[in-house]
Amino acid sequence: MKRVPIKVGLVGFGTVGRGVYEILERHRALLAQRIGAPVEIKKIAVRDKSKRRGIKVPTGLFTEDYREILRDPEIQVIVEVMGGTQEAKTLALAAVKAGKHLVTANKALLALHGREVFGAAKAAQVDICFEAAVGGGIPILRALREGFVANRILSLFGIVNGTCNFILSEMSEKGADFQATLKRAQELGYAEADPGFDIDGWDAAHKLAILVSIAYGVHVPVDKLFVEGIRRLSAFDLECAKRFGFEIKLLAIAKSQGAKIQARVHPTMIPAASMLAAVRGVHNAISVEGDFVGEGMLYGAGAGSGPTASAVVGDIVEVARNIIAGIAYTVPPLGLYADKVRDAAIEPIGSLKGPYYLRFQALDRPGVLAKITSILGRHRISISSVYQNLAEEGRVVPIVVLTHEALERDVRAAVAKIDRLEVMKEKTLLIRVEENCR
Length: 438
Ligand SMILES: NC(=O)c1ccc[n+]([C@@H]2O[C@H](COP(=O)([O-])OP(=O)(O)OC[C@H]3O[C@@H](n4cnc5c(N)ncnc54)[C@H](OP(=O)(O)O)[C@@H]3O)[C@@H](O)[C@H]2O)c1
Known about the structure:
By secondary structure, the protein is of the alpha/beta class.
């Protein structure tokens, strides 16, 4: 039976938008077979129609006003791949209100305005899909919502920022320092000219907010998450990690503790033999533990035109199949039909328990180590290993301490006291250790 095409409006024709167009063109027949109807892009909104795009597209498809797409009664699906938050939010709410299904790759939009956008989609009973927002081409959100649906999620560890993973992999493999490696990442196009959003952990935090909201069916404001980036790590820290049998990764971590949820992004020491430690370069991986299924891991390309567009087209297919079946909102965006999705009770970072790596920068004088260990001891922190570089007396040297399990509140109090010692020449670096990371 020949069906009428599903009409799509594409808002944005940059890295991701162009990829979506290419897949829909190249796989037109294949997708029609898989969906049961062809998919047709009816309009494409961009900022500047005159820009050279390096790809053949009928010029009549372009518009500089996305409201044309909103007003078009034939367009059933809007694909938002323009980025940003304010305009994207206006577009998303207007699309849903107009009864159009929404596919977006915009993690910032959902992490910051998800409650409002999801609420509007529920009220309008339209689909809202956003697989590409986390992990690029890795279908982690669908896996959490559907594949793992039988389970309570006990923990989730994610390498979800390719820029940071590239920098840390290079520093670990080549012993290069942070600034030089960041520069190299920028030259290779793996880091933005203004890299703060990635290297300070905020991109990963936006993704974690989305992962937690689906894993636990809650709303999570990004500002409730504990977020720490990778700027302070040195080649020395990566070398020490190896000495202790670890690698350092920027991880997005979620764990459920009864009603409370741990949700945090920070550099983490993980066993060198773990699967996540083997994830190198710009790749992403998310390891999930469910109470019945046990542990599983998804690995792949976390960004880029092809992988991200692949996830977006996957969402378009889901929506198109629903349209043909005459249904919508069968899998709610957070995987819950609950009337009210509750706010997440996020555990404060001070209650975290685990081993810690502490790097002190101190003047090399007799008795310094004794002073440090005595303050740690008074705060109930016991030491499992110490490493100190030999140097001439009177010079500033790193002293590294690996602790047994301790309460973060105690560790912070001890470090604050140690940092006030006259011999200390830099703020102490603290890295959390996750010994059970897969
Ligand atoms: N790039 C990735 O690997 C990746 C991975 C995962 C998720 N994402 C997400 O996907 C989204 C798009 O990213 P991208 O890398 O494709 O961005 P991009 O290359 O900067 O492209 C943005 C596109 O949006 C258009 N645009 C911007 N404002 C507009 C407006 N007001 N009206 C109409 N069009 C507008 C731009 O038009 P002009 O071309 O005329 O300037 C451009 O075509 C973002 O939310 C991003 O976070 C990207």
